[in-house]
Amino acid sequence: MRGVLSGFAVIAVVIGVGYVIGRRGSLGPHAREVLTKLAFSVASPALLFTTLARADLSVIFSSRLLVTAMSTAAVAGVFVAVGAVRGWGVGRTTIGALCSSYVNSGNLGIPIAVYVLGDASLVAPVLLFQQIMVTPLALTVLDLSGGGEKGPLWRRLLTPLRNPIAVGSLTGVLVSATGWTVPGPVMAPLTLIGNMSVPAVLLAYGISLRGSAAPGRGHDRHLVLLSVALKSAGQPLAAWALASGVFGLHGAPLLDVVVTSSLPAAQNLFTYASRYRVGESLARESILLSTILSVPVLVLVAALLG
Questions:
Q1: Using one digit for the tens of pLDDT, what is the confidence trace for 194-213?
Q2: pTM over 0.70
Q3: In terms of CATH architecture, what is 2-305?
Q4: Sequence ranges of the domains in the chain
């Protein structure tokens, strides 16, 4: 399980640096907001574009993607249904649904895929599905809810085309689909800017932990506990049931999809919550708890299916 431990160690160190920065006030009182805006508006769109522009889109048609899509929809649907019944609001329910189903497929998923599954490409279906489908859809919902668009219908329908994350993802897919090779002088600075995304997200997350209450005890505790239960247990179980019972996967392919579904909630969800000023404590606490719980969950999955 060297991949699990090394992946978590890297994340923990960078978050810890952010926490120290927050305690010392090294970057001023608005450090978290600046880092969040940098990640959301500049670095993450560049990262998504450079990643997807060079991606093999043929993985979209794999059974692994279908398992990922169906398990994601299942657990997110449960959270949305409960949120609708309890009246949690569109914004908080959307963030909670993301925390229940959106896995850390990048900075944690890739090293785990390499060291546990033996092939980094196995995380590609999850990465592409989340970037192409889930992110644009969720951010459009957040744009149109609460403080979202108030203009005419045609302007509201064009919301995804004005969202930096969605634009970066969709433009990258378009480049990959057409087979066009982005010139080096264009791709190199975009890659450099995109490399800021993950550190900025993790540092902002670390800064936010300063002075925050213990996870699962705040006013959003019911939302946090539900999202963590769905992420840590519901999604891996749904992926296992679908992969083995519906698609007949077994052995290594079954292990692949269950391991990727067992990854914790991604840190960039906190960026989205901060950007739209909704469910910030929900995102922060859900990410922290699901990350802690994912260690024994991943070890258990590897022991049972490996």
A1: 889 888 888 988 898 886 66
A2: yes
A3: Up-down Bundle (1.20)
A4: 2-305
